[in-house]
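User: Predict the complex with nicotinamide-adenine-dinucleotide.
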Amino acid sequence: MPARPHDGGAERLRLGLIGAGWIAQTHVRSISESSAAVVCAVADVEPARARALAGRLGAQAYSSWTQMLDQSSGRLDAVLVCTPPQHHREPTVAALERGIPVYLEKPIARTQEDADAIVAAAERTGVRCAIGYQWHALAAAARIRGELSGQRLGLLVGRSIGPTTSRPWLLHRAQSGGQLLERASHHLDLQRMIAGRASTVSAHPGWVPLADRERPDGDIEDVISVELAYDGGARGAIHIAWLRSEIPGMYDMTIAASEALLTLTLDPQFTLSGVSRGHRIQQREDRPPAIAAMDLFLESLHSPDHPRRLCAPRDAAATLAVALACERSLRSGCPVEVGQPGRAETQS
Ligand SMILES: NC(=O)c1ccc[n+]([C@@H]2O[C@H](COP(=O)([O-])OP(=O)(O)OC[C@H]3O[C@@H](n4cnc5c(N)ncnc54)[C@H](O)[C@@H]3O)[C@@H](O)[C@H]2O)c1
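Assistant: Here is the predicted structure with nicotinamide-adenine-dinucleotide placed in the model:
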C-alpha cells in the first residue's frame, strides 16, 4: 500500500475500487481531475483487469475484494463498489461493517432482499453509503421540485432512446434485470424524486432487434415502455430503446403541471427549459451529475449528515421496489401494484 498521498499539504482521501470495469474507469477519470482523493487499491475477480487499472493508477491490485478489505483495513477512507448488480450486497455490507464508507453503483441490488440487507447495514452501522443514481446531484432536479411546489402535477414522460455499452452480464435478465434495472431505473428514480410514490405500474417489452449485439446472446428486450400511476394522481411514462452505437441518443424527461411545462434534457447536455408560473426557464448544469455526485460523496465524508443531493440506500431500495414491480408486469402482461421495500407486491 503506498504512503498516504498529499496534495500541496492537504491529505487526499484514499479510495478502493471493487470492480474495475466500465463505470469504475469513468469514476477514475473524475477522481483524477479532483485533488480530493486518490485510488490506492483495485479489486476485480478478473485479476488482469485489476492489475491493468491499478498499474495505471500506481495502486495495489487484488483479485478479491475480501483480500483487499482485509489487507488494507484502516487504510481506506472509502470504497466504490462497481460490480454488476448481483454482486453488490456482499462487498457493500462487508465494507460498511468494517466502518468503511461506500459509494455503491446503481441499482442498489438485483433483489429486494439484497437491497434490504444493504439498507439495514447502512442504518445499523451509521457509516456513509450513497447509491450511484447521480441525477440526485442535478441542480435542475432541486429547481423542478421548487417550481412545482404548490402546482398540480399531471404527467411525466421520460425517454432513454439510444446506444448503451453491452456487457456480458447485462444481456442476461437474471443477472442484470435488463433495460429496466440498467436504464429505466434512472428514470424511475428521477420521477419518484418529483412525483413521489408510484402505486401501480404496467410495463411492456418490444422484441424488434435494434442494437448491434449478436443474437441469440442473452434474453433481454430491446425496447420497454412503462406506465406509472402516482399517489397524487399524476401519470408517468418511460420509454427505453437500445439502438445501434452509431445513432446519437435522445435522453430527456418532460413534465406537465397546472402552471408549468418543463423539459430536462439529460446526457450529455443537462439542461432544464420551459415555462413555469408565467416565466421562462433555461438552466444548464455546470457539471456532469456523475462528477457532481462523486464530489458530494467525497465532501460528505467530512460531515455527519447525508447530503440531500446524494441518493440514500433507503431511497434506492424504494426505486428498486418500483423497478421489480415493472419487471413482474413485463413478465405477466398485467398491471402490478407496487409493494413497499421488504413487502411483496400484488398483481392487479
Ligand atoms: N451510474 C451510472 O450511470 C452507471 C453507468 C453504467 C453502469 N452502472 C452500474 O455499475 C455497475 C457495474 O457496471 P459496469 O458497466 O462497470 O460493468 P462491467 O462489466 O464493465 O464491470 C464490472 C466489473 O466487476 C467485476 N466483478 C464482477 N464480480 C465481481 C466481484 N464479486 N468482485 C470484484 N469484481 C467483480 C467484473 O470482472 C468487471 O470487471 C452496475 O451495477 C451498473 O448498473 C452505473
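The chain has two domains: 6-131, 137-287+310-347.
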